[in-house]
Design brief:
Elements lengths: L14 H11 L3 E5 L3 H14 L3 E5 L1 H7 L1 H15 L3 E8 L2 H10 L3 E4 L6 H18 L4 E6 L8 E2 L12 H11 L3 E4 L7 E2 H4 L9 H11 L2 E4 L7 H10 L1 E6 L1 H17 L6 H23 L15
Parallel strand pairs: 1-2, 1-10, 2-3, 3-4, 4-5, 5-7, 6-8, 7-9, 9-10
Helix pairs in contact: 2-12, 4-5, 5-6, 7-9, 9-10, 11-12
């Protein structure tokens, strides 16, 4: 496995290249959502410091605020200027129109999310969207989602749902075969957002590691872990070893963004220069991204082996 501080990115020219290497090295590709230029600058700065590939993500709401085309142009410009393997994903896309918008804007992947629908309808809508975006760009990667991981990268009082609607290996196999997706996002004990107790450091998320390994064996595609914020570090390492390729972090960045902004504003109530107020915010978010990148690309853990996949 490539050691921290000496990454070799010479053969990474596409998102598929980055994922193929992560699969081979049993490392995880960090996916970090951005809703403004502050967060984007922080992610790029962390990538430059560590040298590791990163996947910039933007949900429909984040794309609406930032501008899908504008974000795509910025990421492309930064990739060309820095030479870093930085890629762009249209996170949680709930309509064919929004998926096509992202594909036409030049995104490297689209996270197609019809997981709230019944399974058969999820399959049909996902398959239709995969075909449509591949017609725009055959190299674009498509992600589909099965199972329930809640909604909203926010701070919550209590957990959403009861983790009963987790993805089964058989569902995963059927979904991948029927839709033709490149990447699967299963429900494996993960959830969007963070509980207050997680923000306070009193609790951590824990994943169904055996389920991840079973799904990896039956699905045979790249796997994404949504809702990674607040997850126990050791579970991250073991989830990567079990077959997770992409890990989404959003709420942790938002918490760092908000706390740092409050502190920056409180330091001088008369300060009105935006870049002076926001510079510490960039640094705070960058610290979170850097820490996660070092974890995801760090310690190698033996892959979890499962004798047989069980539903």
């Amino acid at each position: 496995m490539t050691t921290i501080g000496s990454p070799n990115n010479t053969n990474i020219h596409s998102l598929r290249d980055a994922l193929t290497r992560s699969e081979k090295e049993r490392s995880g590709l960090g996916h970090f959502n951005v809703g403004d230029l502050v967060a984007l600058k922080a992610v790029i700065a962390a990538a430059a410091e560590t040298g590791f590939p990163v996947l910039v993500g933007a949900s429909e709401g984040e794309r609406e605020f930032f501008g899908a085309r504008q974000l795509a142009v910025l990421v492309k410009s930064l990739r060309e200027e820095t030479g870093l393997p930085v890629f762009l994903n249209a996170d949680h896309t709930h309509s064919l129109a929004k998926a096509l918008e992202a594909a036409n804007a030049g995104f490297d992947s689209v996270g197609i999310d019809f997981s709230a629908l019944p399974f058969d309808e999820n399959v049909a809508r996902t398959k239709e969207t995969v075909h449509a975006i591949k017609a725009v760009n055959s190299a674009i990667l498509s992600e589909g989602e099965v199972g329930d991981i809640g909604t909203g990268s926010e701070i919550k009082e209590v957990a959403q749902g009861d983790f009963k609607n987790l993805t089964t290996p058989e569902q995963a196999r059927q979904f991948v075969e029927a839709t033709g997706i490149d990447i699967l996002a299963p429900a494996v004990g993960n959830m969007h957002g963070m509980l207050k107790s997680m923000v306070q450091g009193k609790a951590k998320k824990h994943l169904d590691l055996e389920r991840i390994a079973q799904i990896k064996q039956t699905a045979g595609v790249f796997l994404t872990l949504h809702g990674g914020s607040g997850t126990d570090d050791e579970h991250f390492r073991k989830a990567i070893a079990a077959g997770i390729n992409i890990i989404h972090i959003n709420t942790e960045l938002r918490v760092a963004w908000r706390k740092s902004l409050d502190q920056s504003l409180a330091r001088d109530f008369n300060e009105v220069v935006p870049y002076k107020i926001l510079r510490p915010v960039v640094d705070s978010v960058k610290q979170v991204v850097t820490s996660r990148l070092r974890l995801f690309y760090g310690q190698a853990v033996g892959r979890v082996v499962v004798e047989s996949a069980k539903a």
